[in-house]
């Protein structure tokens, strides 16, 4: 029988100060403590949460090596809160820059650093592609790590699930301008629906932490959320800075019953898809 799943997840929707790592780390610390006070097991922060997103002109100053000063401070925050902590950062590695996501254990141990595999638009001018799908074994289960645009590609999420991911986290900064909103209706409702679809089609928990606020004339879309394997929205933040917490308790027999109905992975016919 499938084992019960019992944990508390949190996603933080924050406005980042562009280029001000100290201020962003202070805000991350505040929200991590808030999550800890509510007995959260894992808290997820947005893409580039430590630096802000539009930083291509300052990458040489803001990007740091793995286990550099920012990672060390994040490790302290995780240990101080006694919580699993996942945060979007920017990494300098052998003369190249990566849009990254790092996860720490409640003891402050860095469990993994993931480099974004799918780069959007002008991101390719600043960052290198990551080439390592990353799944982390934790006391909470097997966590698949993703960043923003990775979510657009269902095959990538499916690959993580096929490799054993039970929870998929997504640090993101979905953005829009007036043209995208008014002409095409691009919105946080759309991105939240995409997260729900990824959870539904794979039968896993998906937790997406998005930015809020504006940078360079672009508005971040919010709608951070935590999604059940059925696609049910367990917690969400439509707008503004906040933390959303979901107390997840899925009984093993209920999961088995749901998956016996929602046989989406088994019913695929890859031989028809090429």
TrEMBL record:
Coiled coil: none annotated. It holds the Pfam family CN_hydrolase. CDD domains: nitrilase. Residues 7-250 form the CN hydrolase domain. PROSITE patterns: CN_HYDROLASE, UPF0012. PANTHER family: DEAMINATED GLUTATHIONE AMIDASE (PTHR23088:SF27), NITRILASE-RELATED (PTHR23088). Belongs to the carbon-nitrogen hydrolase superfamily. NIT1/NIT2 family. This is CN hydrolase domain-containing protein. It comes from Sneathiella litorea. The lineage of its organism: Bacteria, Pseudomonadati, Pseudomonadota, Alphaproteobacteria, Sneathiellales.
């Amino acid at each position: 029988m499938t084992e019960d799943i019992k944990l508390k997840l949190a996603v933080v929707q924050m406005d980042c100060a562009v280029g001000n790592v100290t201020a962003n780390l202070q805000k991350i610390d505040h929200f991590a403590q808030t999550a800890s006070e509510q007995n959260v097991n894992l808290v997820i922060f947005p893409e580039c949460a430590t630096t802000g997103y539009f930083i291509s002109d300052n990458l040489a100053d803001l990007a740091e090596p793995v286990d550099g000063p920012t990672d060390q401070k994040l490790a302290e925050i995780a240990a101080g809160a006694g919580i699993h902590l996942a945060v979007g950062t920017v990494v300098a590695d052998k003369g190249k820059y990566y849009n990254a996501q790092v996860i720490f254990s409640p003891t402050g141990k860095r469990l993994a650093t993931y480099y974004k595999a799918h780069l959007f638009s002008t991101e390719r001018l600043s960052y290198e592609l990551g080439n390592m799908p990353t799944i982390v074994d934790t006391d909470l289960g097997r966590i698949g790590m993703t960043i923003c645009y990775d979510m657009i590609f269902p095959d990538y999420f499916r690959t993580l699930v096929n490799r054993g991911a039970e929870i998929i986290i997504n640090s993101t900064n979905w953005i829009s301008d007036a043209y995208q909103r008014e002409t095409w209706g691009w919105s946080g409702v759309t991105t939240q629906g995409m997260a729900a679809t990824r959870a539904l089609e794979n039968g896993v928990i998906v937790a997406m932490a998005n930015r809020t606020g504006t940078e360079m004339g672009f508005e971040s879309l919010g709608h951070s959320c935590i999604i059940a394997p059925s696609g049910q929205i367990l917690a969400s933040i439509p707008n503004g800075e906040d933390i959303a917490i979901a107390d997840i308790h899925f009984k093993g027999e209920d999961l088995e019953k749901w998956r016996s109905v929602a046989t989406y992975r088994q019913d695929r016919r890859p031989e028809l898809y090429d």
